[in-house]
Amino acid sequence: MWLDIGQIHMMHLFQADIELHSHNFFELVYVVSGQCTHRLGNEQSLIKAGDFFIIDTGSEHSYINTNKKFEIINCLFMPDYIDRALVDCPTLADLLSNKVLRFGVPLDICAADRTFHDDDGTVGRLMHKMMAEYEAKRTGYMELLRCYLTQALVCAVRASENISPKLHPATQGVIDYLHRHYAEPLSLDAIGKQTGYTAPYISGVFSRDMGMTVRSFLQRLRIEKACSLMDETDLTLSQIAQRVGYTDSKHFADLFRRHKGMSPKAYKNSK
């Protein structure tokens, strides 16, 4: 479902059944009342009043067996609505871990495509405030919406941290190994030999647990390490690229721009 939503679009509605689909934007959903079966990828769960979740770009989901009492507030938003520098962030994980936001979200915290419950009503109050601002469109409403949305994202991150990770030992072993050896030339076969698993097994288990490939995780890890070096040292961009495992400065710059929405030079100059 590829829609032009501008930067942000909100809806307060009684959701009917909708077939499996994906988006080119992020979707924050809050269940106001009722319940229904929600399918996300290959998994189904019953969602009810007080539940909330964020659908990642490209993730498929559907609503099944809805009725007139299934009421939700939807917030559809593009990454650059949070900050213009985030325009090219491909996933919610990339957005939340981006140094521009200064959230400090670790790479292994996943707030997308998971259902949380709003125990104290904080997210519900934020969503109702957002809906009221969006409908009234009074002076400054876009800035207030951004503030409320940022708060809701922080709530999702905190909820993610409270869920004990159920990582397969192979996934945890790979994560630990990458954190120690990210600057070295790496391949799945080499990682497998060091962690005791075959490359195909690692690939499947890691993607299932983390929602991304080992290669994608390594790229994100290297880019975050590069950002830290830019923040904390006076090393040149070429030196930083080599420190995080890239001998080709142009390739490093292309990856950095893809993950951070700006060039390494622009990031360094913004410090």
- Strand residue percentage: 15-25%
The SSE string, one letter per element, is EEEEEEEEHHEHHHHHHHHH
Major beta sheet, strand line-up: 1-8-3-6-9
Radius of gyration: 20 Å
What is the averaged pLDDT score?
Answer: 88
Q: Can you summarize the main beta sheet? A: 5 strands, antiparallel
Number of strands: 9
- Helix/strand-derived category reads alpha+beta
The rounded distance between the terminal residues' Cα atoms is 38 Å
Report the total helices: 11
Could you estimate the helical fraction of the residues in percent?
A: 40-55%
Low-confidence region ranges: none
Shape: globular
Please outline the helices and strands.
Layout: E1 8-14, E2 18-21, E3 26-33, E4 35-40, E5 43-48, E6 51-55, E7 61-64, E8 71-77, H1 79-82, H2 92-97, E9 115-117, H3 122-136, H4 141-162, H5 169-181, H6 188-195, H7 199-210, H8 214-232, H9 237-243, H10 249-260, H11 264-269
Antiparallel strand pairs: 1-8, 2-7, 3-6, 3-8, 4-5, 4-7, 6-9
Report on this structure.
The chain is α+β, with helices and mostly antiparallel strands. It contains eleven helices and nine strands. It has helices at residues 79-82, 92-97, 122-136, 141-162, 169-181, 188-195, 199-210, 214-232, 237-243, 249-260, 264-269, and strands spanning 8-14, 18-21, 26-33, 35-40, 43-48, 51-55, 61-64, 71-77, 115-117. The strands form two sheets. The chain has a five-stranded antiparallel sheet. A four-stranded antiparallel sheet has the order 2-7-4-5, with no helix packed on it. Strand 4 and strand 5 form a beta hairpin. Helix 5 (169-181) crosses helix 6 (188-195). The longest helix is centred in the middle third of the chain and has 22 residues, at 141-162. The chain is globular, with a radius of gyration of 20 Å. The two termini are 38 Å apart. The mean pLDDT is 88.
